[in-house]
């Protein structure tokens, strides 16, 4: 089966907080119902392939959770409100409702073997990874946790397991942010055989932007993910890492999730499962959910403005609300009329009150892929039309531009660490992909590059191929038509000489292109070396 499925059941939203608890008050069923309505009204649901929802079996829940814990949770439907309240109190930041435990609802990533935690009862993503390993014999599963909280429940589940690579970025603020754990820091990298398969990116300041998120994808996650070569990618997709969220206080806009999704779709031949976790600003949440769905369905990616240098934490001096308000000129103008006192109050503006431009619609034209060739092609891949012949002059021009490749690992390192950051910052309106027979690139590598580059220019791409065989033309057309790129296999390390060359180029170019910067000198100023 291919396509995108949407798993949701009304039953998941039949729960509510039955007593007063300010910590849990933001975890409301409208998070689910409003997200679902938004997906429906954007016409996204009807484009999905139908997959029926079923309850998780006890056997599945027991893949991670203990028998004792499951038995305890099974008692909750018959508890009185008082009993539920008491039961809840043995755990942290969570509540139970008598009917909530049938079809398991999000979120899940804080839930542990024998404990509910952080609005989570059962760990959906951990169970999914264990299930996939067991029933589909998978050897490598990647979990990307872009929720603003650390999914410690997922980390605990796989910390000794080298077959599951867990990545999480999270608001940390030197352990002062919930769940306040030492093991959420960057130096927790896994244990025993699992050493190196746990990647934490703690944010020690709030107000992170689209540039910060892309920077971590290009310089931390994607290099590791391509080297790992997952057979399946699961996303703990919390949208509390988006602008306006009362928990996250971050400034990344909903559009960024369209890009993060697109970037992950090139892995594992597109086998990607995005699972809702947090997200408590209903406007930001529903917009982010729709952006993610659009990308899963192959719609052209949205344009991002203002991509540049990630923020060295030492340079963030402003509280997040101030940083976010730069986006909002309408508010700013109004503010000029305010008195000093009112201005002061404004500084303490809640993230819920922050405004940002509504994402532009992402119309879904049928992907238009046309082929033009200087010679007759025997057969064209499905969905491509023949346009006509290429003038000889274009071919001569194209030949002058070359992307010379060494090993797969080197090429991918250069593409992820140099080309993509540079391209995202440049923000082109058109991407010209040029390939000649002398490039030395293999088809799967080229198809990967081609797919990744379609995140730019809202997918507007012109590919020029010269002297390439049918396999290359076919691979390019498939990629341009939105098919997932072939996987590359575990990449291994690029040879030292290539690493050195790529690093030298990065050093040289980072003065101009901020998104190439992956470190800052001690003083907190931009690295001028190179
Ligand atoms: N305001 C998820 O996003 N309490 N869980 C925070 C500080 C718990 C978040 C209290 C937050 C749990 C899935
Ligand atoms: Zn969260």
What are the defining features of this structure?
binds zinc ion, deacetylase activity, Ureohydrolase_dom_sf, His_deacetylse_dom_sf, 530 residues, 2 domains, globular, Histone deacetylase 10, two-stranded parallel ribbon, 34% helix, Arginase, Chain A, binds N-{4-[(3-aminopropyl)amino]butyl}acetamide, disordered C terminus, 5-stranded parallel sheet, 17 helices, HDACs, alpha/beta
Describe this structure in words.
With 530 residues, this protein is α/β, with parallel strands linked by helices. It folds into 2 domains: 10-353, 3-Layer(aba) Sandwich (Arginase, Chain A), CATH 3.40.800; 369-480, no CATH class. The chain has helices at 30-41, 58-61, 67-75, 81-89, 124-135, 152-158, 210-228, 255-264, 282-296, 320-325, 329-336, 340-347, 392-399, 408-426, 443-453, 470-480, 496-509, and strands at residues 141-145, 164-171, 198-203, 232-237, 272-276, 369-372, 384-388, 431-436, 461-466. The strands form 3 sheets. Strands 3-2-1-4-5 form a 5-stranded parallel beta sheet, sandwiched between helices. Helix 8 packs parallel to helix 9 (282-296), helix 14 packs parallel to helix 15 (443-453) and helix 15 (443-453) runs parallel beside helix 16 (470-480). Mean pLDDT is 87; it is low at 314-322, 326-346, 398-405 and 522-530. Zinc ion binds next to loops.
Question: TL;DR of this structure?
Answer:
The chain is of the alpha/beta class and 530 residues long. The chain is built from 17 helices and 9 strands. Bound molecules: N-{4-[(3-aminopropyl)amino]butyl}acetamide and zinc ion (ZN).
């Amino acid at each position: 089966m291919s396509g995108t499925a949407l798993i949701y059941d009304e039953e998941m939203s039949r729960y509510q907080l039955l007593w007063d608890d300010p910590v849990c008050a933001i975890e409301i069923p409208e998070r689910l119902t409003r997200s679902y309505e938004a997906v429906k009204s954007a016409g996204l649901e009807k484009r999905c392939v139908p997959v029926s929802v079923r309850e998780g079996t006890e056997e599945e829940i027991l893949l991670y959770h203990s028998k004792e814990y499951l038995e305890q949770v099974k008692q909750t439907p018959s508890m009185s409100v008082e009993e539920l309240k008491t039961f809840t109190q043995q755990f942290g930041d969570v509540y139970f409702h008598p009917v909530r435990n049938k079809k398991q609802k999000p979120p899940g990533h804080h839930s542990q073997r024998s404990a509910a935690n952080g609005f989570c009862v059962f760990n959906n993503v951990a169970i999914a990874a264990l299930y996939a390993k067991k029933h589909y014999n998978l050897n490598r599963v990647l979990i990307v946790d872009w929720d603003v909280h650390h999914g410690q429940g997922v980390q605990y589940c796989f910390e000794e397991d080298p077959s599951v690579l867990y990545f999480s970025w999270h608001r940390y603020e030197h352990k002062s942010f919930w769940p306040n754990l030492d093991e959420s820091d960057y130096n927790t990298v896994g244990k025993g055989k699992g050493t190196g398969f746990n990647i934490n990116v703690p944010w020690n300041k709030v107000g992170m932007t689209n540039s910060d998120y892309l920077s971590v994808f290009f310089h931390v996650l994607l290099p590791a993910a391509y080297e790992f070569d997952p057979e399946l990618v699961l996303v703990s997709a919390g949208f509390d890492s988006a602008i306006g969220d009362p928990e996250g206080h971050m400034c990344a806009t909903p559009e960024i999730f369209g890009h993060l999704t697109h970037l992950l779709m090139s892995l594992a031949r597109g086998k990607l499962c995005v699972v809702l976790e947090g997200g408590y600003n209903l406007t930001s949440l529903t917009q982010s959910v729709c952006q993610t769905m659009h990308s899963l369905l192959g719609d052209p990616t949205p344009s991002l403005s203002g991509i540049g240098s990630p923020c060295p934490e030492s340079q963030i001096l402003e509280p997040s609300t101030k940083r976010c308000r730069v986006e909002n000129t309408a508010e700013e103008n109004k503010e000029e009329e305010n008195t000093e006192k009112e201005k002061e109050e404004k500084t303490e503006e809640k993230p819920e009150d922050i405004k940002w431009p509504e994402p532009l619609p992402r119309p879904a034209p049928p992907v238009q892929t046309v082929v033009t060739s200087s010679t007759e092609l025997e057969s064209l891949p499905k969905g491509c039309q023949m346009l006509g012949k290429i003038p000889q002059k274009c071919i001569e021009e194209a030949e002058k531009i070359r992307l010379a490749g060494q090993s797969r690992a080197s090429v991918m390192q250069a593409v992820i660490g140099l080309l993509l950051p540079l391209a995202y910052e440049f923000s082109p309106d058109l991407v010209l992909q040029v390939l000649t027979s002398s490039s030395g690139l293999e088809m799967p590598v080229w198809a990967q590059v081609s797919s990744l580059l379609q995140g730019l220019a809202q997918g507007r791409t012109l590919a020029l191929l010269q002297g390439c065989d049918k396999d290359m033309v076919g691979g390019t057309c498939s990629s341009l038509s939105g098919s997932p790129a072939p996987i590359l296999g575990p990449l291994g390390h690029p040879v030292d000489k290539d690493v050195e060359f790529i690093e030298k180029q990065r050093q040289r170019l980072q003065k101009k292109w901020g998104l190439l910067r992956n470190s800052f000198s001690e003083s907190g100023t931009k690295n001028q070396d190179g």
